[in-house]
Amino acid sequence: MEGVHVRAPGKINVFLEVGDVQDDGYHEVATAYQAVSVFEDVFATEAEDFTISVTGSVDVSGVPLDDRNLALRAARLLAKESGHTGGVHLDVRKGVPVAGGMGGGSADAAAALVACDALWGIEASTSQLLQLAAQLGADVPFSLMGGTAVGTGRGDQLSAALARGRFDWVLVTSDEGMSTPEVYAGLDAHRARVATDIMPASRAPVVASTVLQALRAGDPVLLAESLRNDLQVATLQLRPALTDVLLLGETSGALAGLVSGSGPTLAFLAADEDDALDLRITLSAAGFHALNVHGPVPGARVVN
Ligand code: ATP
């Protein structure tokens, strides 16, 4: 086989409740993911060793090209688990902003798993790929699956959510990314500051039923009322300038806006495609880098 081209989507967490920090340093979360039409393209070709090149329509200078790269780690993991002895060259073309809170690295890992599986003729089952994905990162299983899903645990225990119709979003991206661990640490510090002596007993985080209802009904107005991201407070404390952008979007026709994942990308939900186009024009005219996307879209899959 000449080579394999796989495309994988970025994601928005339309709901993200963050529980207490666990003994292992991770937080338990309950999230509703929506895969959106901003993509990573990975081209895999046979090679003796494991190599990678990264280009794209976004600034890729922050992407490691060594074994820290999640796509390379995915390829190596699949080779190890399947007993495949050759290597691969991965040519990654990024469309998802790096360290933008949209799971770009996770999408590369999911795409690399699917691409190497096809290139090497392994024919792993979906559940085998999902299990490898979970070893690579909390968001990797969702990028494989795509569509709309609820994630619990670290976000990696997935169940598909019923979804109808199409949701139109405007994304505002930032030139400089944010570190996910730093944002979680910011949330812990914020919670410690606002804690009172008498705290309610903490319960396991759970996705609100109104979110699931809105997704099921394809109802952007109801979804706008139910959007939630517990990381937002920490992201905005670390990047106060984003607060004004959120306000601008929300007063320029968005039904609602929120920080995507750990940020700094902002996601504005519009009533329909026309409203989203108008909003994007307004935000672009104000000097922001804004783009129209829609969801849900499928997970990582072979294109050629
Ligand atoms: P998260 O999944 O934590 O929300 P994110 O969407 O904010 O992540 P990513 O673009 O996935 O951000 O990158 C987070 C960090 O992971 C980067 O700063 C980079 O150092 C590292 N990284 C490793 N592999 C990749 C990859 N293939 N593409 C982008 N970043 C990668």
SSE blueprint and pairings:
Layout: E1 4-21, E2 27-47, E3 50-56, H1 70-82, E4 87-94, H2 104-119, H3 126-136, H4 140-145, E5 148-152, E6 157-160, E7 167-173, H5 180-194, H6 209-217, H7 220-226, E8 228-229, H8 232-238, H9 241-250, E9 256-259, E10 266-270, H10 273-285, E11 289-295, E12 301-302
Helix pairs in contact: 1-2, 2-3, 5-8, 6-7
The chain binds adenosine-5'-triphosphate.
Give descriptors for this structure.
8-stranded mixed sheet, alpha+beta, binds adenosine-5'-triphosphate, globular, 304 residues, Alpha-Beta Plaits, 35% helix, 4-stranded antiparallel sheet, 2 domains
Verbal overview:
With 304 residues, the protein is α+β, with helices and mostly antiparallel strands. It has two domains: 4-158 and 298-302, Ribosomal Protein S5, domain 2 (2-Layer Sandwich), CATH 3.30.230; 167-295, 2-Layer Sandwich (Alpha-Beta Plaits), CATH 3.30.70.890. The chain is 35% helix and 30% strand. The chain contains ten helices and twelve strands. Strands 1, 2, 3, 4, 5, 6, 8 and 12 form an eight-stranded mixed sheet that branches. Helix 1 links the parallel strand 3 and strand 4. Helix 1 (70-82) packs parallel to helix 2 (104-119). The chain is globular. Adenosine-5'-triphosphate is lined by residues 62-64, 68-71, 98-106, 108, 139, 177, 180, 261-262. The site of adenosine-5'-triphosphate has 22 residues, from helix 1 and helix 2.
Terminal CA distance reads 11 Å
Task: Give the fraction of residues assigned to helices.
Answer: 25-40%
What's the shape? Answer: globular
Rg calc: 19 Å
**SSE sequence, one letter per element:** EEEHEHHHEEEHHHEHHEEHEE
Overall pLDDT metric: 95
Number of helices, counting only DSSP H or I runs of 4 residues or more = 10
Low-confidence stretches: none
